[in-house]
Amino acid sequence: MKALFQKYRSVLKFILVFLLVYGILTIAYKFYLDFSKGGAYYPDYLTLTVAQQSKALLDAVGYDTVVEPHPNEASLKLIVRGKFVARVVEGCNAISVIILFVSFIVAFSGRPKTTFFYSLAGSVLLYSVNLVRIAILSIGLFHYPWRKETLHKVIFPLLIYGMVFLLWMVWVKRFSTLNKKHG
C-alpha cells in the first residue's frame, strides 16, 4: 500500500490541493453571494458589473442596449434595440469558471510568483472573453432568436471552456514544476 502511495504521490497531491483550493474558493464565493443578498447591488455586484460592461461593449459596436432588473427573478435583463434578448444571471459572471481555472493552476504546482501572476492574467483573460461571449451571444440572439439553444448551450460554453483548457495546457507545458519533475 505504501508503494502505491509513493508511486501516485504527485497525483494524490494534485487531487487534494485541487479539491482544497476549489472548496475554499467556492465557499468564499458562496459567502460573497449570501452577503450580497438584499444589498445595494442587484443581484450582486459582480453580476451587475458584468451586465453593465456587456452593455458598454454592445453600445460600442452600435447595439443600443439597456440593462434593467428582472422583475421576477435575481437577474438582469439585456434589452438590445428595444428587444429583450437575454438574462444575465449570477452564473454569467464567469466566477465559477475562474475558480475552476485557478484551482487547477494552484494544484498543478508552479513557482509561487509565476502561479500568482498566471492565475491573475488567466482570470482577467477569462473574464474579458466572457464579456465578449455575452455581447456576441446577445447579438446572435437579437438576430437569430431561434438559435438560442445552439448559441447558449453549445457554441458559447465551448468558447469559454475551450479557453480554460488552452490556458491549462499552456500552464502544464510551460510553467508547471510538476511537469518538469516528471516530464
The whole-angstrom Rg is 19 Å
Describe the biggest sheet?
3 strands, antiparallel
Q: How many domains, as an integer?
A: 1
**Hey, roughly how much beta strand do the residues contain?**
5-15%
The computed structural class is mainly alpha
Residue-averaged pLDDT = 91
Q: What kind of assembly state do the chains in view correspond to?
A: single chain
Helix percentage range: over 70%
The gross shape turns out to be elongated
Order of helices and strands: HHHEEEHHHH
User: What is the tally of beta strands?
Assistant: 3
| Count of alpha and pi helical runs | 7
**Distance between termini?**
25 Å
Q: Pick out the low-confidence regions.
A: none
Strand order of the largest sheet: 1-2-3
How would you characterize this protein structure?
It is a single chain. The chain is mainly α. The chain has one domain (2-182). Helix content is 70%, strand content 9%. It is elongated and about 65 Å long. The two termini are 25 Å apart.
